[in-house]
Amino acid sequence: MKMKKNNLSCDIGYLSMNHYGEQLCGDHVDVVEEGENTIIVLADGLGSGVKASILSTLTSKIISTMLAAGLGIRDAVETFAATLPICAERKTAFSTFTILRITNNDKVDIIQYENPNVILIRNGVHYEFPMSTMTIGEKTIFRSTLDLADGDTFISLSDGVLYASDNGVLNNDWSREKLIEYVEPLCDANFTAKTLASIILDETNNLYAGKPFDDATVCVLKIKQRQTINVAIGPPQSMKDNHRMMALFFAKEGKHIVCGGTTGKIAAEYLRRPIELSAHSPDPDIPPISIVEGIDLVTEGLITLDKVMMYAQDYLADNESFEQWSYKRDGASLAARMLFEDATDINMFIGRAQNPAHQDLPINFNVKMEIISELSKCLEKMGKKVKTMYF
Q: CB 237: neighbour CB atoms within 10 A?
């Protein structure tokens, strides 16, 4: 009997902060995705700087490669841990690590070696999951296997997050328990994994007064139901395809975004609904949205798309602009929230028609297609499944 496939998906986001004055981070995160299976390894190299960076990178790369090649959890950990040396001076491993191996978006194996214990927020509250131990050589390694549930939020971190203080001395007011209290209400919000990691790391940096005396890394895994967002951008090359494009667009399940004034009119005509320009313009740099019953969001075209693309590029880097798009009500911010936070699957319907209004402007058809192409690539790098159709 064939088992029914679940409708869960993984949202993964991580950020690191260097030891103050260091060019390289001594922590490293590696993510390998193969179909419905995902391997996440967070490694923390001993010390900081170049040596720690090399150690953590090798650790995460070797472990993730072995697991991706089909080696079992125990075999992979035994193979690696047996070769991982102990520092003679500090009597500790040259690199610690946390592994999350997700299988079929259904189960997760958690392997932990001397990193802070993974935090799981389930149903809005902290859940202390059971752990068993494996002894490999001189190393004690903790292992857990859990069934995944919609809304689960797993937070992996290096110890630099918990060391945060502004005077180089352990901060007794900041601990794993205090961090749990801090993140529990945040997990109720619809933040992406990357944004939640950004918020935690920002707070860590504040506690360090902007001068962290250790590398700090946060990696967040959020389990969520799959959700499709459909995006129509630009009218078809031939007007004869207007109806076909809209019929296919609105036949797709999920939410619908329409970008472009002409495209909005075509969509409104197809739905036989009036289109109204919003009287409210929250951002003078972004054209106002339009309102059409039956469409979740109708925005202006190129200027709005360009802003969304810039937000997407920043999201994949340091995610510093999340404080803008995560709450603002302009078209670009609303589209960014739908695409970054809500979507797991994105269908893009791209019209190839030239816009006569752009003929005398430096924003021509090629620029528009470049923006769409870059935005699609960014969304794929976020882990979205993107399908593109041209008309």
A: 13
DSSP-derived letter for residue 341 is I
| Residue 134, amino acid | M
- Report the SS3 class of residue 296: coil
Domains and CATH numbers, the chain: 8-225 (3.60.40.10), 228-390 (no CATH)
The whole-number pLDDT of residue 91 equals: 61
Residue 26: enclosing H or E segment and its boundaries? none
Q: Residue 25's closest CA among 33, 37, 17?
A: 17
3-state SS assignment for residue 86: strand
Integer angstrom CA distances of residue 34 from 11, 65, 68, 105, 145: 14, 12, 8, 11, 19
Q: How far is CA 10 from the centre of its chain?
A: 9
Q: Which residues pair with 254 in a beta bridge?
A: none
Q: Is 220 helix (H, G, I), strand (E, B) or coil?
A: strand
**CB-based contacts of 313, cutoff 8 Å, min separation 6:** 374, 378
pLDDT of 258 strictly over 60: yes
pTM listed for this prediction:
0.90
Q: Per-residue pLDDT tens for 162-214?
A: 988 877 666 667 899 999 999 999 998 889 999 999 999 999 999 999 999 99
Write the pLDDT tens digit of every residue in 105-127.
999 999 999 999 999 999 999 99
